[in-house]
Amino acid sequence: MSEWNYAVETGFGEEDPYINVSDVEVEAPKEETTDTFAEVSDLHGGEAISRLSMMRRCLVEDVRVLLPETNGTLIIREVDSPNRILKVPVGLDQASMLSIYLKGVSRVRPLLPEVMIDILNQYAVSIAMVSITSKDGGVYRSEVTTVDSSGKSKSVPARLSDAVLLTLASPLAPPLMVEESLLS
Fold first, then answer.
1. Are 157 and 111 spatial neighbours (Cβ–Cβ below 8 Å)?
2. Distance CA 54, CA 84 (A)
3. Which residues pair with 76 in a beta bridge?
4. Cis upstream peptide for 68 (omega within 30°)
């Protein structure tokens, strides 16, 4: 089985495997576009509202690294009572990046999340929300929802640590929503 097929069947996880592009046969996705909020609501309304009602607003509380561990732990806390938490293992490199934003470390040049936010802004697109939607084995699934200047929204899957980095880097501080069943 090729590495690509294995990754697709088992999920990519926090550390994406090396992918040999020559093994990949890609069919362009059929993109669905809508012009008004009413059309978006009709298309996704019931499902989106139902899904959002099962999510809780959260904040990134801390990133911890206990040496000699090979991973850090991202700690996300529910905003409202009962203030449950979600502990997510992240790679050391991601823990380092998350710490930079949480501690407000000044930098001379922007890091990748800031560059991404600037690129989105150039196209009048902003991050509306980041959601942690499920856990499949040891892999957390998340998505970033963007909205453009005409009000059209789109959601794309993302590694949890990358999605959280985008919320921390964004000057608009988009909400971080977590599926309620993941909180303890």
1. no
2. 14
3. 60, 86
4. yes
Question: Rounded CA gap, 95 and 121, in Å?
Answer: 26
Q: Find the length of the chain.
A: 184
Whole-angstrom Cα distance, residue 126 to residue 148?
6
**Digitized pLDDT (tens) for each residue of the chain, 184 residues in all:** 455 444 445 544 444 443 333 343 434 344 444 444 444 444 444 565 667 788 999 999 999 998 888 899 999 999 999 999 999 999 999 999 999 999 999 889 999 999 999 999 999 999 999 999 999 998 999 999 999 999 999 999 999 999 999 999 999 899 999 999 999 9
Amino acid at site 110: P
Rounded-to-integer distance, Cα 35 and Cα 102, Å: 37
Domains in the chain, ordered, with CATH? 3-26+55-182 (3.10.690.10)
Please name the residues in contact with 183: beta carbons below 8 A apart, sequence gap of 6 or more.
56, 58, 78, 84, 85, 86
Angle 13-17-23 from CA coordinates, rounded to 5°? 125
Partners of residue 177 on adjacent β-strands? 57, 131
